[in-house]
Amino acid sequence: MPAPDSPTILTVRNLNVNFARSTLKAVDGVSFTLGAERLGIVGESGSGKSTLGRAIMKLLPNSAKIEAEALEFAGTSLVKASEKQMRTLRGNEMALIMQDPRYSLNPVLSIGKQVAEAAKLHLGLGKAAAYKAAAGMLERVRIADVERTMRLYPHQISGGMGQRVMIAMMLLAKPRLVIADEPTSALDVSVRGDVLKLLDELVTENNSGLILISHDIRMVAAFCQRILVMYKGRVVENLVKLEDAQHPYTRGLVAAMPNPRRPVRRLQVLDRASIDAAEARS
Q1: Residue 160, class by beta-carbon neighbours within 10 Å (0-12 exposed, 13-18 middle, 19+ buried)?
Q2: Is residue 161 part of a domain?
């Protein structure tokens, strides 16, 4: 649940996602609410985390069927919203920071033009003001030599820098809902803290809600106020503190992560039999 006195930004109730020619649900009966807070969603690859985020943004392919008792953003039904309405919401009110900038940035436009285009589109700025806003945002995500970087093209920058450019583009309009899908996966350790701090500043300054999707359960636990744990498309646990985890899947994820303070010769693996048995009882 959202923090006390925090207005509900996003309501998800019994959300299901099916893909054509598949009998399995990619997202299976997921329910949660989000206020002005940081919510983490964790799970292994294929658990449905990214599909859930894209379903909220309605960015799944036509082969996907989205059904829900409620999927509402600030009182607007996203299930019933037309594509025209969604285009108005995306970028202005809702933003998705994708995992891999190589497939998100336009290869034939310079970095400066792409970030400035976001400022023009979502903030209604003129050319000069848009470039100034773009440069300011790139500075906030710790890009050195901003003027030079703005003249470069996506293939001329590193993956980590590309991811910071994506974050800058998505945060320009100060959206009320930010879905960050592995936003720090391509960044080195020294920069990750800065990026997470920037996301935290956005949530605080704009009274926004942040959904952080990640494999790194310890990072999510340290940064987020609540954690949803997903397994086979379902939410198996809703936690405030990671140490309160009871489900064998959550405990298995924690045990499988390396701990530099307690090195072991071999990491643990998930006990699928125990996990599936627990799911059968639920």
Answers
A1: middle
A2: no
